[in-house]
Amino acid sequence: MAKITFVDVTLRDGNHTYRHQFTPEIVHATAAALDTAGVDIIEVGHGDGLGGSCLHVGRGPSTDRQLLEAACSAVKRAKVGILLLPGFGLFADLEMAAEVGVSVARIATHCTEADVTEQHLRRAKDLGMFTVGYLISAGMASPEQLAEQAQKLESYGADYVNLAESQGHLVPGEVAARIRAVRQAVKIPIGFHPHNNLGLAIGNILAAVDEGATFIDGSLKGFGGGAGNAQTEVAIAALKRAGHEVEADLFGIMDAADIFAQQVAPQPMPVIDNDSLLMGYANVYGGYIHPVRHAAETYRCDPRALVLRLGERKVVAAQEDVVIEEAQKLSCTSTN
Amino acid sequence: MAKITFVDVTLRDGNHTYRHQFTPEIVHATAAALDTAGVDIIEVGHGDGLGGSCLHVGRGPSTDRQLLEAACSAVKRAKVGILLLPGFGLFADLEMAAEVGVSVARIATHCTEADVTEQHLRRAKDLGMFTVGYLISAGMASPEQLAEQAQKLESYGADYVNLAESQGHLVPGEVAARIRAVRQAVKIPIGFHPHNNLGLAIGNILAAVDEGATFIDGSLKGFGGGAGNAQTEVAIAALKRAGHEVEADLFGIMDAADIFAQQVAPQPMPVIDNDSLLMGYANVYGGYIHPVRHAAETYRCDPRALVLRLGERKVVAAQEDVVIEEAQKLSCTSTN
């Protein structure tokens, strides 16, 4: 039975569900409730992390600083954290975060590109922060590849390595194999961030913890990209039921879920619709849904067949040209 | 890797979500889509099975016969099934079902009361039906108890035994232990019917199949009692991803989910709210939520504490007097 550090990402990943429109008021009320419930780390910001607010991925109504100040002023015991994708986020953003009281920095990149996190991990460390190497789309890499990337993150001084299964593609056995490979490769702790596209967010958390993961991500009401994250209040209940130790109180976290839902009403909870299900099945990043729809319409092909093709091509973010290429091919096939 | 027989219960368990108001039109359209998709067995009727339509649990707009005729006239290859709880359902109901073309009869009772299914199982068998012994609230019995009950069902001629984890309380390891115990006790196949109160419907299905379950229940869009069932389209995708063989086609079942959703629009999909989460955590049957709310208000006690007490008391259906007794006790405690 493991002792779990729970990382709630409602106020960061959940911002995707809310089209990045979280306000300082929403952040303050929710962070206070999470803190009262006993959650260990509260991640806050734009869905794409520090510096993410831009026209391309969605502009928020507030600055990163305003959101982080709202969170830091709301907590008594929890740590406030940020996510930073090098490129979106800069050193200056990290410095601002440290200045307002953020003490956890998760530096994120595609699962095979750990190299690009080195400078930011070291800078965050210099600023006195608890630092995390965060591997996006971890279901696109083999256990061996992830083990190698984790070793790099450890060598850059990361305090733990987080596997983010952004597409919700893996089944429990596949998650277990990845956690095991990383555990055998590094001495630092391991975290896991699931998505629910195949309805396995909670099942995969339990499999990850059974293999030694001790940092677990979730979000209230499951708010998050695609089919959403593991629902924090459900994950905490399931972890407790499975005999694991979680600091957060069950009634407290249920209260936090209610408070958050009231703040964002009438926004409904994420569900698994056919789009997110198919993206998870095919292991295609959720952001591709709009380019897929557009290309399928333009080239009159089956969008579902197109998603499967993209999965076979193992597209990563920002390869929208492949969508058009495959749509054209499918279009030819269907008219022949 | 297993070959799975998929049993879709949208048109029976999903009727709970729709307050038992399914019409022959909804049944016909949905059954046709499920049949086209390649689902093996389609269960149809009132949420509480044959004879369930009554003022106490909810009266439907159509007779059992009308719903079953709608389903039987819609299918070309799938079998149509019914659920029958002895007491609600009578021999005459079974005979009517057989007459209109129903070929699968699942005879259900509380997980420790297999005895009460014998007569109905034998009658269904005499009528030439494929018969199933169905153990409700299987998370309230130990693996050993379930093994013993399964042996009884086998001796009554059941073609398979179905463990229905009605409260969504179990974690995958607990499901595996129960399937294993039953597998070691009987020669007939084993089925599993999860609920999603702890977000583990799909994770528990994969655990059950890994231990040898070969009949799996689910419902389109997750419609079903409490936090809902395993979402059929998601379960089929996850089973395929895990390498198992399922006859149903993924795109076909996604189409069926859409067709069903259109039929019942604007009814939203079930989600895991705090009520269903707590009932699952405490292992208390979903039907208790209304008596709990009423008693908590009357006796001014915390409804959540009351649910936990009911879980400790291991209440089964129709013990509403215990709700009042425990509410009174909690009320005294809190005023002292």
UniProtKB/TrEMBL annotation, chains A, B:
Catalytic-site annotation from UniProt: H16 (proton acceptor)
Gene3D superfamilies: 1.10.8.60, Aldolase class I (3.20.20.70)
Catalytic reaction annotation: (S)-4-hydroxy-2-oxopentanoate = acetaldehyde + pyruvate
This enzyme's EC code(s): 4.1.3.39
Domain Pyruvate carboxyltransferase: 4-254
Annotated site residues (Transition state stabilizer) in this chain: R12
GO MF terms held by the record: 2-isopropylmalate synthase activity; 4-hydroxy-2-oxovalerate aldolase activity; manganese ion binding
Regions annotated as coiled coil: none
InterPro entries on file: 2-IPM_HCS-like (IPR050073), 4OH_2_O-val_aldolase (IPR017629), Aldolase_TIM (IPR013785), DmpG_comm (IPR012425), DRE_TIM_HOA (IPR035685), PYR_CT (IPR000891)
Chain positions recorded as substrate binding sites: R12, D13, S166, H193, Y285
Binding annotation for Mn(2+): D13, H193, H195
Gene Ontology BP annotations: L-leucine biosynthetic process
Family annotation (Pfam families): DmpG_comm, HMGL-like
Keywords linked to the UniProt accession: Aromatic hydrocarbons catabolism, Lyase, Manganese, Metal-binding
Family note: Belongs to the 4-hydroxy-2-oxovalerate aldolase family.
Protein name: 4-hydroxy-2-oxovalerate aldolase
Organism: Cupriavidus phytorum
